[in-house]
Amino acid sequence: MEAADIHHIGNPTNRVDGRLKVTGAARYAAEYEAPGLLHGVIVSASVAAGRIVSLKTERALSVPGVVEIFTHENCGSGAWLDRNWKDEVAPPGHPFRPLHSDRILFDGQPIALVVAETLEAARDAASLVTAAYEVGQHCTELEVKRSQAYEPPEKRSGIPPPPEPRGKAEDAFERARHRISADYRIRAEHHNPMELFATTCVYEGKDKLTIYEKTQGSQNSQGYVTSVFGLKTKNVRVINHYVGGAFGSALRPQQQLFFAVMASLELKRSVRVVLTRSQMFYIGYRPETRHAISLAADNEGRLTSIIHDAVAATSHYEDYQESLVNWSGMMYHCDNVKLSYGLAKLNTATPCDMRAPGAAVGVTALECAIDELAHAAGIDPLEFRKRNFATLDENTGKQFTSKALGACYEQGAASIGWERRSAEPGAVRDGHELVGLGMATGMWEAALMKASAEAKLTPDGRLQVSTAASDIGTGTWTILAQIGADALGLPVGAVTPLIGDSSLSASPVEGGSWTAASNGSAVLAACEAVKQTVFKHARKMANSPLAAASFDEVVFLGGRIALRTDPDRGLSLAEVMHASDLREIKASRKAAPKLLQMRKYVSYTHSAVFAEVRVDRDLGIVRIPKIVCAVAAGKIINPKTARSQILGGVVMGIGMALHEEAMTDHRLGKIMNHNFAEYHIPAHADIADIKVIFVDEQDDKVSPLGVKGLGEIGIVGTAAAVANAIFNATGKRGRDFPITLDKIISG
Amino acid sequence: MDTPKIEIALTVNGARHDIAVAPWETLLDVLRERLHLTGSKKGCDQGQCGACTVLVDGERINSCLALAVSRDGAAITTVEGLAEGGELHPLQAAFIEHDAFQCGYCTPGQLCSGVALLHEGRAQTREDIRELMSGNLCRCGAYTNIADAIETALNRQNAGREAAE
Amino acid sequence: MIRFDYVRANSVAEAVTALSSPGTRALAGGTNLVDLMKYDVMKPRRVVDINRLPLKDISERDSGGLRIGALVTNSALAWDARIAKRYPLLASAILAGASPQLRNAATTGGNLLQRTRCYYFYDTSTPCNKRDRGAGCSAIGGINRIHAVLGASDSCIAVHPSDMCVALAALDAEVEVEGPQGVRTITFPEFHRLPADDPQQDNTMRADELITAVILPPADFGRNHTYLKVRDRLSYAFALVSVAAALEMRDGIVRDARVALGGVAHKPWRDKEAEGLLKGERPDETTFRAFAERLMRDAKGQGQNDFKIELARRTILRALMQAAAGTPQNQSDKVIR
């Protein structure tokens, strides 16, 4: 067999954690035991603003089994300075401190923690805690605060503010042959991972904790705990081996972590705190956004003006920011662009990054507007996009490291049968249903973050690769094993990946679609270093067949190191290690972005999403028999798990298009549908055929692996493709998401 | 109120457990907190997501809405009991093969629900599978893969039956 | 969840006795009661477990029709061969509701006693007359897109959430209840009530009565029936509007018609007077449209739910067309034909 034939990277590989997950053996944060474990239940505020006048806990304390009730009056104190409460991904502002004072900043704010010997006692007692409030003025309605939107004075790290205007967008708009102006509204969404937020804090003795935590970053949680509670890093270990979904909601340490640790330190016992599903509606969310977009094109359908102004909600205590409008300056070629983005403060918790934060909504608005302009210009919307293809990032003038979007357009269109699309809306009928096709472009950044990893080879031919990354369903366990296996020429089964533990090599939070590229590259680098060491020892051996070879001339294959040109001549890894009396070969390496390259290049993942919808013309019921998502994401490490990432993004995009919204009673400042029965996410019956295409894309600059990342791109563009298909089917524009059936029948 | 605990017997995955429970303990909490069978998941605790689905006397139910005391004497199968002697249930194997999960948290419920669906014998079409699995939400969006896995297991089961006939 | 006392009833008489002490609730499948107890909406001091009672049979009645024991689960009922053959409308309505696992636990009696899905009823931090008489109705002027357009009052605009009950209303079912005074039968229209000034009362049963059975009179609509449910997602969601329609057709003419609506009122909605409009008419769009207009004549929106009035008209029309054509809606098929 030729060495080149063995490639785990690029091979559809079953999840290495699959067996644990299908047998119920994979343990999540709430599923660890500890001797004498106590249970904490959080009591939430029932007003949106004001202060607590009194908290009555007597009845609750009388429930058998209750150990303690923490309120702002007796809570263990955390750090004094704001900066101690800031986690790695905190936006500018004053981070929320649970039980810090009597002040109420938002409905659902935690006001007490009941700790009891059993879950039932804690839950029962929590229902008996009553609070009296001095109710303050609140506002939860973006529309009311829209006119007071402001540009955030301090920018959030890692989020580029809108670029300076280029050209003369207003003038060009006024002069243009074809133009549209429209307002889009995308309502607040909640992540709602299936797993309830949970922390099991195991008290290991004086100021020493092992914390099983639902987080996308064990080291971010560890840093938060050490900084807030003044503990030593070596005494706080955070474990998140399995994370039951997160989608951004577990990037920042959430309430339950603070509570479990605080109670554990105060009571010197192990404590578990689990949020209820309802409480999960108050820990961060995708903010509602309003988008005013004006677009213009010339006779040939070339964009001559793009104006995109967006307003997003944030809390009273932090300026949460996303890259919301920047996409409108880089997705298409246009000389006259004006983008702006403001925040409005509401009495809610601070929003939190949710799958493709910024792009998921900003691109939705833009891509609907593009469809509107193409229609106004009488040009097929796919053709319109091709005519306006951007070969550069025009926001920065930098080149793309790769952009196989053209292939996405071609292959996606062929797969959905785009030629079937009628240019005239409402023209295709099948029974009671109107049939339509729509499409949109998607885009997400391909980032490489600083990450480190360790690789360790043992004489039994096993490789261990480790980094403090997380697998929130993304497939990290599996791809790291594949990368290690490929590097050392081992079967995947001979590689033990270790992640989900703050004691491992430094890693950023698992988000932004950067884990495969960042942690993957670090693992690759560590493995390369191990290979160098093996090679060094192999060459030194007596009568080594590799004595004269250079590193470039050897290959690692089937547990051996051998000559590339004559694989029969080589040594087993075990032989090499025995000869040098090595119990292990270990190396740690880092991956980091190439700053020099970044001065000239930018990297993005691209996609083209095509949707077929069927709309009952009387009842407004929308069905989506098919979606095609064609993605250009560089090298695909594991086509099987990669496909799943895209499927998941598309399903969430369908949710954005048709189902998901927080319904807030602005009189009360309360979210009213804070449960899975009334906050609808797509169910099995809503999801029919989704086709995922990965187009070929070589990129030797984006990351050492050529990988771009896939966690976000699936959602970007999906809601717009569905909305545009609904327009093609019915002639009705859905500009207010989700497009529920009432909007279709009464629009 | 000082209600004494009530002695009940549950046969879980073939093993009998005699335990004393408070009336307000749900079957899900007894499985997870008392018997440490944490495979059955709590996703909403209100019967709205299906992650807690288990088989009670062969039928799938939401264990979060069942008071343990009212299921005294029942035979319960959880995800931990689907494999036999280390060999995965065909549906478990199909889930791995079709990548029918991502985070894995809804998976035990999907599996118990899917195993029940196979037994019930009411799903004939892909549409039936989707409808009869709609009580199990999956936020990772693995629905198409779950349907593929169930269809595979269903076809295998039907082929097995035809061969036997 | 709160703490409560638990007793297990071994006979209907025992259950009835238990129910006569205040603050006691009967527990069957638990799919609604336990749910509401977890949200602290219902706080019984004592729960009487009726699951061991011999109310799990479906039996023939001498006068024709079937008697369905109160503890027959929704699944057992929907998949029962007699129901499938003689009352397919009922089977279809049940299968349109909830999920297989909920239907496996939920019982016939419990389904009748399902409480509303009003957001405010479920959230104890908001005023609600149904939970707390005199507290006020937050849904009026609030989030009310799922609320009632018919029969609502100034004190409550909640809707009854059941699908099964909509079919039972169309089938002229009766409810058999047993209390300290013995057994009595309540007709379906009399069983659930409109909210009026005392919305905390969903039905006309007394607190110490127990549902023992639902009685189905003989019915034969051939294939001229349908259960059509419109909701915000394609499954596992409560109805925005649903229609149970059954027509008795002869020689191309409607001889008898039963139409019940779900999702629009505090109870399954029927208007026998309006149904009279259909009798003797041709089963065509004009007839059905006029009927739908009439049925929704007194409908009143609350703002967010205004759309339900027109949606209900259109759903009624489509359902009647399906019933007339003998093409009942299949609940797996998401195309509304």
From TrEMBL, chain A:
Signal peptide range: none
Pfam families: Ald_Xan_dh_C, MoCoBD_1, MoCoBD_2
Region (Disordered): 146-169
Compositional bias segments (type: Basic and acidic residues): 146-157
A GO term, aspect molecular function: iron ion binding
Cited Gene3D superfamilies: Aldehyde oxidase/xanthine dehydrogenase, a/b hammerhead, Aldehyde oxidase/xanthine dehydrogenase, molybdopterin binding domain
Domain spans labelled Aldehyde oxidase/xanthine dehydrogenase a/b hammerhead: 23-137
InterPro entries xrefs: Ald_Oxase/Xan_DH_a/b (IPR000674), Ald_Oxase/Xan_DH_a/b_sf (IPR036856), Ald_Oxase/xanthine_DH-like (IPR016208), AldOxase/xan_DH_MoCoBD1 (IPR008274), AldOxase/xan_DH_MoCoBD2 (IPR046867), AldOxase/xan_DH_Mopterin-bd_sf (IPR037165)
Superkingdom of source: Bacteria
Name of the protein this chain belongs to: Xanthine dehydrogenase family protein molybdopterin-binding subunit
Record lineage: Bacteria, Pseudomonadati, Pseudomonadota, Alphaproteobacteria, Hyphomicrobiales
UniProtKB/TrEMBL annotation, chain B:
Annotated GO MF terms: 2 iron, 2 sulfur cluster binding; metal ion binding; oxidoreductase activity, acting on the aldehyde or oxo group of donors
Family matches, as InterPro entries: 2Fe-2S-bd, 2Fe-2S-bd_dom_sf, 2Fe-2S_ferredoxin-like_sf, 2Fe-2S_ferredoxin-type, 2Fe2S_fd_BS, Aldehyde_Oxdr_Iron-Sulfur, Beta-grasp_dom_sf
One Pfam family, short name: Fer2_2
Superkingdom of this protein's organism: Bacteria
CDD domains linked: fer2
Domain 2Fe-2S ferredoxin-type: 6-82
Keyword Oxidoreductase found: yes
Swiss-Prot/TrEMBL keywords: 2Fe-2S, Iron, Iron-sulfur, Metal-binding, Oxidoreductase
Protein name as annotated: (2Fe-2S)-binding protein
Automatic annotation (TrEMBL), chain C:
Pfam families listed in its UniProt record: CO_deh_flav_C (PF03450), FAD_binding_5 (PF00941)
InterPro entries documented for this protein: CO_DH_flav_C (IPR005107), CO_DH_flav_C_dom_sf (IPR036683), Diverse_Substr_Oxidored (IPR051312), FAD-bd_PCMH (IPR016166), FAD-bd_PCMH-like_sf (IPR036318), FAD-bd_PCMH_sub1 (IPR016167), FAD-bd_PCMH_sub2 (IPR016169), Mopterin_DH_FAD-bd (IPR002346)
PANTHER family (UniProt xref): OXIDOREDUCTASE, XANTHINE DEHYDROGENASE SUBUNIT C-RELATED
Residue ranges of domain FAD-binding PCMH-type in the record: 1-221
Alphabetically ordered keywords of this record: FAD, Flavoprotein
Name listed for the protein in its UniProt record: Xanthine dehydrogenase family protein subunit M
Originating organism: Bradyrhizobium rifense
GO molecular function: FAD binding; oxidoreductase activity
